[in-house]
């Protein structure tokens, strides 16, 4: 067998092997299954796993932007009953650090407990002003809370009314952004504290910060204890990857006790910091948020990109905060049958010590038109006020994290497409094999033409010993 024949056979064998193996891998999805199994094994909340440290201290930065509605017609509202007019002011931006403290494995390593601690650092360059200087006129939440608590007692309500008058405490208050966010000693609460044990400091984010004030000339550090929202126990995902990051208990409870139905009191999903691998677009993801004292769900909306990284955008549908008439499943969120708000609002008084606090999406987005019309200055727009979660990642991602994710995605893509690469290489070898086969056939035909012979004489010669022979000579080209 000639060297050319060996090469031809070798190419044919390699070509056939690559095509058979490649097509077999594509059909059986061995590489895809390998990647999925590897992800299920690696993405677990146990010591030594790839995600454990980043789960405890997430590297991508989280920015919290706070906006306030400044009431501009307090006197007209109080004296004439005019429609309140508000002007949005913000953002006041803070870098939020989310860490999980006192992390420990429980139940033989199947679950992990931790406290979610948040600290905040003010970012002047991303804010509209100085929170220590800028004043906001808004409702006096402590005063409203006290009056709501005493509305059933004429004597106590009258006494509180006199206290408010003497203290100059009204239904509205003007405070700095810092005071409204991080807390201030309220004179009415201090007066009540002399009779009853109550918290005398009020702030929307009281006990939940480390504040960093920065001016153009200097900076002042004001470190305070970061707060946590109680102990969480999470599933590690080791038993079932679908349970990765799911909340098992909060403050030792598997169910809440704020609401009036088992469904409303259910603790579902994760805390929003982690989601199971291999997320599907058709899934409904659940998030338990202590700020709302309930679980909410989100549904896939569209594919997006964050710094070139593909992600799924999930958003809460209108049904999450729909009225009980529109969504009967929400009937359990009514504080009482008479205190059941319409679509777009959720009264969170049960978990706010009875304070008359109502939650909604910004500008009453996805809410009933009557709420938007009741306050001048509301202008709900989807592009500005929609709540959404991009997975992955869930927040604004820094360039270093984006580069790492790009590298991981490249590895996953290469491994997942490895069978296609084999098929492609097999196709190239097939093309080479066909070319070599054609050239071999053409060369054989040419050789047959070049080695033709003709008899030397028309007469056969006899050899007494060896028999008859015929003399041959190569054909010559006919001359012109």
TrEMBL record:
Location(s) in or outside the cell: Membrane
Any Gene Ontology biological process: receptor-mediated endocytosis
Origin: domain of life: Eukaryota
A GO term from the CC aspect: lysosome
Cited Pfam families: CD36
Major place of residence: membrane
Transmembrane segments: 7-27, 408-438
Keywords from the named record: Glycoprotein, Membrane, Transmembrane, Transmembrane helix
GO MF assignments: scavenger receptor activity
InterPro entries: CD36_fam (IPR002159), LimpII (IPR005429)
Region (Disordered) location: 444-480
PANTHER family the UniProt entry points to: LYSOSOME MEMBRANE PROTEIN 2, SCAVENGER RECEPTOR CLASS B TYPE-1 SR-B1
Family: Belongs to the CD36 family.
Protein name: Lysosome membrane protein 2-like
Species this protein is from: Dissostichus mawsoni
Taxonomic lineage from the root: Eukaryota, Metazoa, Chordata, Craniata, Vertebrata
């Amino acid at each position: 067998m000639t060297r050319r024949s060996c090469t031809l056979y070798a190419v044919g064998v390699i070509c056939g092997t690559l095509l058979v193996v490649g097509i077999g891998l594509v059909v059986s999805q061995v590489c895809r299954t390998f990647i999925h199994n590897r992800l299920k094994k690696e993405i677990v909340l146990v010591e030594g796993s790839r995600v454990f440290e980043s789960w405890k201290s997430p590297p991508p930065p989280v920015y919290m932007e706070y906006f306030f509605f400044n009431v501009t017609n307090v006197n007209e509202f109080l004296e004439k009953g005019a429609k309140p007019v508000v002007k949005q002011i913000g953002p006041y931006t803070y870098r939020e650090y989310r860490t999980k403290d006192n992390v420990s494995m429980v139940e033989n390593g199947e679950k992990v407990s931790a406290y979610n601690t948040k600290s905040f650092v003010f970012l002047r360059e991303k804010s509209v002003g100085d929170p220590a200087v800028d004043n906001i006129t808004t409702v006096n939440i402590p005063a409203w809370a006290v009056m709501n608590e005493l509305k059933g007692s004429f004597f106590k309500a009258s006494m509180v009314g006199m206290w408010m008058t003497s203290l100059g405490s009204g239904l509205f208050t003007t405070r700095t952004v810092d005071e409204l966010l991080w807390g201030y000693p309220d004179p009415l609460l201090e007066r009540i504290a002399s009779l009853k044990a109550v918290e005398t400091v009020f702030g929307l984010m009281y006990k939940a910060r480390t504040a960093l004030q920065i001016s153009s000339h200097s900076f002042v550090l004001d470190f305070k204890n970061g707060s946590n929202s109680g102990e969480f126990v999470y599933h590690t995902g080791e038993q079932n990857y679908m349970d990765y990051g799911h909340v098992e208990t909060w403050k030792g409870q598997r169910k809440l006790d704020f609401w009036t139905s088992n469904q409303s009191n259910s603790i579902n999903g994760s805390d929003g910091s982690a989601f199971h691998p291999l997320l599907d677009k058709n899934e409904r993801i659940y998030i338990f948020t202590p700020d709302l004292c309930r679980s909410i769900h989100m549904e896939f909306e569209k594919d997006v990109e964050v710094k070139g990284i593909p992600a799924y955008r999930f958003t809460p549908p209108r049904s999450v905060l729909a009225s009980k008439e529109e969504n009967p499943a929400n009937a359990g969120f009514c504080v009482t049958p008479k205190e059941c708000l319409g679509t777009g609002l959720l009264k969170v008084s049960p978990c706010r010590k009875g304070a008359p606090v109502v939650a909604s999406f910004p500008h009453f987005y996805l809410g009933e038109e009557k709420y938007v019309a009741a306050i001048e200055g509301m202008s709900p727009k989807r592009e500005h006020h929609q709540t959404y979660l991009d997975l992955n990642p869930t927040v604004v991602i820094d360039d270093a994290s984006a580069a790492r994710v790009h590298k991981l995605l490249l590895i996953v893509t290469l491994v997942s497409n490895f069978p296609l690469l084999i098929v492609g290489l097999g196709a190239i070898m097939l093309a080479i094999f066909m070319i070599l086969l054609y050239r071999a056939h053409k060369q054989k035909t040419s050789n047959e033409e070049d080695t033709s012979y003709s008899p030397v004489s028309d007469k056969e010669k006899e050899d007494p010993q060896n028999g008859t022979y015929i003399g041959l000579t190569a054909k010559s080209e006919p001359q012109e």
